[in-house]
Write a structure and sequence with these properties.
Blueprint (H helix, E strand, L loop, with lengths): L1 H8 L1 H15 L8 H24 L10 H12 L4 H25 L4 H32 L1 H16 L16 E8 L3 H12 L2 E8 L2 E8 L5 H7 L10 E3 L3 E2 H19 L6 E3 H12 L1 H11 L6 H16 L4 H8 L3 H15 L8 H15 L4 E2 L7 E2 L1
Helix pairs in contact: 1-3, 2-3, 2-5, 3-4, 4-6, 5-6, 10-11, 11-12, 11-16, 12-16, 13-14, 13-15, 14-15
Length: 393
């Protein structure tokens, strides 16, 4: 083919032009590994040789026929964390350049239109196959380094959480921002969290400290609320998996605290029908689940006296309605579908059993009832013996 011969004549010029365009997309000298820049030049030279050969011989690229230089450079890009998008844009730049040069040469040499069309078609087929081969090689190399890279990132995150880092590590995540920490379970939690970050326009840092457990932080210039995050993810959370969120705060100290809050809230998420919760909504319950003395004591003080069976459940329902109505007996009666006198009588019985007025029972009472409600919905027994050595189980 005449066009292939003309390309061969201008090979050095075309190679230099291609390198200029490739460098313009992303300067390879920004990559610390010096072999990456050298490999890029080798890959461009090998690709040009292949194009000329294919145009001249009309052979098709078969499995394993891609030049070694292109495969090596695809793997090198993955190892150096050069985005696949950058790699593919370079391939497209080379394809566009060669396509334009073919059209120019055809016009200069009065090459028949049919020959140009054949050359353009062969070039397009070759481009598609090279892109597919390079993408596959890049993906395999990235996967092979995923665990090792993840372990390094986890180590950095742990050091930062524990205050052991002598300088701030490069996490690809801005720490001078508002942060909301979350912890989720399940192998598919990571893509769900990334989808939420994109939908809310937030940066996100995700590490996997152990299989099927993800630690994540959402960062932004404005305060982020768990409710907004839950709403954004309402359609994408993996079915049945757990998700717990801390509270938002600014800066590094808040980045650490919101993570600890999410960790504390995660066990509570197991007891909720929705399988997700925010720390602020269950802070005392989370503390109870970590402190056996506190859990057993509050259950002994506020749950045991209510009794069991039907009467005990009636008194529990009355207390929950009363507290939900901000201690308004009339509103509680309306919610329960009984008259105010009935509620007042039940509250009097409760105070007698507690041996103290309800006005003196604050957050501890609500936490005990909340824990009891979570436990009952999750079919978890709340058992407290007279010796006071009960547990939530």
């Amino acid at each position: 083919m005449e066009l292939a011969a003309r390309l061969r004549e201008r090979r050095d010029e075309i190679e230099q032009t291609a390198l200029t365009r490739v460098y313009a997309i992303s300067d390879p000298r920004d990559v610390e590994d010096p072999s990456y820049t050298a490999g890029l030049r080798d890959a461009v030279r090998a690709a040009l040789t292949l194009v000329i050969d294919v145009l001249d011989s009309a052979r098709e690229l078969g499995p394993g026929d891609a030049p070694a230089e292109l495969l090596i450079q695809a793997r090198n890009a993955a190892r150096n964390k050069v985005p696949l998008d950058t790699v593919l844009r370079r391939y497209l730049a080379g394809f566009t350049l060669l396509s334009n040069i073919l059209a120019q040469l055809a016009a200069e040499r009065s090459v028949p239109a049919t020959e140009l069309q054949t050359a353009q078609r062969r070039l397009a087929v070759l481009f598609d196959r090279l892109v597919a081969t390079a993408s596959g090689e890049y993906g395999r190399e990235a996967d092979s380094h995923l665990d090792r890279g993840g372990e390094r990132e986890i180590a950095k995150v742990r050091m930062l959480l524990e205050g052991e880092a002598t300088e701030l590590p490069d996490l690809g995540y801005e720490l001078e921002a508002w942060h909301l920490g979350v912890i989720g379970t399940g192998a598919t939690m990571q893509p769900a969290l990334r989808k939420i970050a994109i939908s809310l326009g937030l940066q996100v840092l995700i590490v996997v400290p152990e299989p099927e457990l993800a630690w994540a932080w959402f960062g932004g210039r404005e305060k982020i609320t768990p409710s907004a995050l839950f709403r954004a993810g309402s359609k994408s959370w993996p079915q049945g998996e757990l998700l717990a969120a801390g509270e938002a705060g600014w800066g590094l100290d808040a980045w650490r605290l919101t993570h600890r809050q999410a960790r504390a809230a995660l066990p509570v998420a197991k007891l909720t029908p929705e399988r997700k919760t925010a720390y602020a909504d269950v802070a005392l319950v989370a503390a109870m689940m970590k402190d056996d003395v506190l859990a057993t004591s509050l259950a002994h003080i506020f749950l045991d006296p209510l009794g069991e069976e039907r009467e005990g459940e009636t008194l529990r329902q009355t207390l929950r309605a009363y507290l939900a109505a901000e201690r308004n007996a009339s509103s509680a009666a309306a919610a329960l579908g009984v008259d105010r006198r009935t509620v007042s009588n039940r509250l009097r019985v409760i105070e007698e059993r507690f041996e103290r007025p309800l006005g003196s029972c604050g957050a501890e009472l609500e936490a005990a009832l909340q824990m009891d409600e979570f436990a009952s919905k999750a079919n978890v027994t709340v058992a407290v013996s007279q010796a006071g050595n009960g547990k939530y189980r």
